[in-house]
Amino acid sequence: MKHHQFYLKSLIGISGVIGFSSFLFLIGKFEIIPLILLAGIVSLIYVVPIRKKSLREIAYLKSPLIAFVWTTIIIAFPWVNEYGISSTIFPELLAYFYYFVALTIAFDIRDLEHDFKSQKTTPQVVGITRTKVFSVVLISLFILIIAIVNENMRYNIVFYCGSILSILLILGINKQRKEGYYALIDASMMVIGLSYFV
After folding, report:
1. Mean pLDDT (the chain, rounded)
2. Could you tell me which residues come within 8 angstroms of residue 182 by beta carbon, excluding any fewer than 6 positions away?
3. Contacts of 76 (CB under 8 A, 6+ apart)
4. Is 40 exposed, middle or buried (0-12, 13-18, 19+ CB in 10 A)?
5. pTM recorded for the entire structure
6. pLDDT per residue over 151-172, tens digit each?
7. Is the four-CA dihedral 84, 88, 90, 93 of positive or negative sign?
């Protein structure tokens, strides 16, 4: 057993070195370093308990923290790395934060029976129906903000299809849904990503 642990730790160490080297290679702007470090620290504390409690166990924080990390890595990282920090990115960051919160609280419905009651996730606090309505409102705000600030997306049919697909899938969530259904919600996010290449 100890022999296997040595190889496992070695692989983790090698992977870490390769990952860090790749990260340094990808950096185009110095501003990206504190951004990535912040997302990394939040991700770590989200899982690893400090004083016997991780961030995800603190009331009301689970979905916003996940949305923050996703927004930082998926939207802020490539933007800042390419163009640097500018005020023009903030409306889109806010829009995507809304979108990712909408998706994560949809997954909170799936996790309703497994989350600690002390976490006070949205479905625990307001119920499943109101959670769905809240998600739809957030995605509607996402669509509105992106349509206003991004001229390229304003008339992009793929963008609207991906957003509407997210809404329909969230509205269709129930206790009988299997994991494959939630994979479709992730896929709707990918459709929105693809819309930037259309």
Report:
1. 83
2. 107, 110
3. 35, 89, 93
4. middle
5. 0.79
6. 999 999 999 999 999 999 999 9
7. negative
How many residues are given for the chain?
A: 198
- Kindly state the average pLDDT of the residues 26-50: 70
pLDDT for position 1: 45
Of the ranges 36-40, 88-92, 94-98, 104-108, which one carries the lowest mean pLDDT score?
36-40
Q: Which tokens belong to 95? A: 């829009």
